[in-house]
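Here's what a typical entry looks like (Periplasmic nitrate reductase, electron transfer subunit):
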Amino acid sequence: MSVLKMYSLLPQDLIIRGNKMIKKTSLILTALFATSVMAADNIDNYLQGAPEDVKPAFHNVPKQSELPPLNYVNQPPTIPHSVKNYQITKNVNQCLNCHSVEASRITGATRISPTHFMDRNGNFVGGETAPRRYFCLQCHVSQSDVEPIVPNEFKPMKGYGE
């Protein structure tokens, strides 16, 4: 075999070896990937368990005009209407459209309490709602007529509740 023929076979030999190497590498990577996927499935099952099919109906707001009774001293009143799509940001609070001191005289809605105009030291901050009381949904929640997801054994204080 001449030297010229040897050099002409060399690239083809390298291509064959390269293809074998690519196949081996692909097979090893596929096996590693499959093993890691199987391991991840097992870990998820141990940590999370079976998913619960619980779909609470949070937006079944009762049609009620009177305020529900309070269950303990200083309880924030619940909201007897839906607050879906209400905007409460640092610049806009749609609750105040009806519940501010001025608006409540016109709308007949419950007026926000004087404590909403006090700072943490009990000093009145003026005609504006205090920043710590501005975001209503931190304390007040909308009522929903739904079955409890977990058992509830709460009993109102004596003289409170129904």
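The chain has a mean pLDDT of 78.

More examples are in the samples folder.
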